[in-house]
Design a protein that fits this description.
This protein has about 650 residues and is of the alpha/beta class. It is built from 21 helices and 19 strands. Strands 3-4-5-7-6-12-13-17-18-19 form a ten-stranded mixed β-sheet, sandwiched between helices. The protein has a three-stranded antiparallel β-sheet with strand order 15-14-16, with no helix packed on it. A two-stranded antiparallel ribbon has the order 1-2.
Amino acid sequence: MQECVAHGAALQRWEAHTLAGTRWRLLVRKYDATRRGSSYGRGMNTLRHCALAAIVALVTGCAGLPAAKETAAMFSQPRATEHRGQDDLLTGGLGLAGLQSMLPPGFADAAHPTPAELRKRALWGNWRGIADLSPGGGYGSVYGSVAAVPGREFSAFARLAGAAQPHRVLVQLPDAFDAGKRCVVVAASSGSRGIYGAIAVAGAWGLPRGCAVAYTDKGAGTDYFDLDAGQGVAADGTLASADAALAFVPQPASGSGVAFKHAHSQDNPEADWGRHVKQAAQFALATLDAQLPQQAPFTFENTRVIAVGISNGGGAVLRAAEDGAPWLDAVVAGEPNVLAEGAGARSLYDYTTEAALLMPCALPQLGIPAIPGLDAKCAALAARGVLSGATADALQKDALAKLHAAGWSDAALRAGAISVGFDLWRAVAVGYASAYGRYPHDAHPCGYRYAALGADLQPRAVTDAERAAWLADGSGIPPGAGVGIIDPQSPADLGLSGLQCLRALWTGDGADAQRVRKGIAATRASAPRDGLPVVVVHGTDDGLVPQAFSSAPYVAMARAAGRDVRYWQVRNAQHFDGFLVLPHMAAAYLPLLPYVYEALDRVDAHLDGKGALPADAVVATVPRMGKPLAAEHLAMPR
């Protein structure tokens, strides 16, 4: 710290931190900043890193002061890395060809990968999980770019007031940062993904435009904890014991199997997703202050901040939009998992547990092949009083009728078939039940737990190689990356008792049901700040987060409150661009990411005074039917 003290005068450019506003005091009016030269010479490195450390120390040092619910951001010591030459911010040096490779980037030592190896593999996995990178899919030619972006990354753990566990924040600062525009794109990972879970959404748009990009894993992520080995994931992605500074240490940190943060933090992170997004933006401003002292201070008043996310990340940025303080300049939410008041609105947990029970039996009535053992499962549901009918066909029709009555469209059901095939409905329901109810890893209300599974589907020890790769290979919600779900019932039960138990946590009146529903109620969204530009983009065929249950009620609620929210409904678009690598999916569906990028272009131009906000649109796309994607297929709104 002696070098930091010697450079302490650099910190005098910042005024006192205000807890009430949770931001640096106003110094410059928004967008009045003039362009100044920037330096990346080695002579500035000590000053910049010490300045960032001192900012963090100042912020965390305020933690003991009285504060409102929205308190100052609290960050761990930042970690800085450089990415140039054979490496870069956007793809880790992989480029389009490397991202398209079916084989992930390897580790020199499978049991002890380096932080750089983990980062590259995490980028590979998150790009492929979010974007359609297949030849003919159009990425890099019709829309989007994976051109190398050199720069630096700064990462830390952040903690909300009252939270038991931290969340990861990361800022990517391109060498070509546009000091004249002074822009930050802030994003939350989709699903339960790790810190790079929005790289294909926010990074792909913001970095080539000279913006800093800030990310949060919003209290979820791939920082799994091996209860048997007593090991979790450190800041750099490597493994460490429970007494080290880890991204997640469950309580209790003992037992058998695997725990993960989204389900087992006992924080119900979804209730605070908007605050996670704001903390990531605060970390970005502090980072810019420290790394670009000639352009400092960077404040919410003189720096453009655009929030973007898809799926759970889309819901997170809409929650951030509720904040009455004018720190956000615009929001673009794609296929958002958002719960609003209004006609048709349903929680993710409600329709997920419904789909897990009924959708497999309903799909054959839409011409979709039955899963193995379906007749026995539907008959068992009839014996339990869930379905009615004397024949297999009658049971299928009853399941379909029940889903139609609950608001499911045939388009959503067809697209939802892939979630049946991947057992995604059960995976979401099991994990989210723990999260909403704030249950520890050893107290799931329906008896589920997580562990590595052998070929006989019995729990086994996690291998060193599996554990070491969790940060890069995990999705944030098992099964996957060597971790499976353990059903407390025998295989003869067909998994139905557990699914009924999960459903009863929504429909029942017991203590566990009340506990879970209380957690869900805490995630309900309200209208965005008055005057904030908001664009919502959603596929009409979304089968995981149907727009009828999510974005449509949200837009109606916001407009009823007098907010000017724009809404693009994209025909022939479903939830997972990453699944368009499958030929039958690519033939029927269009990617959603091009519309998210276009919406970002439109709001950015609007903020520049170069155009109006986009009008509402129902986009009449044209399915590819096996042809390479072209602009005419997208039919982009004009």
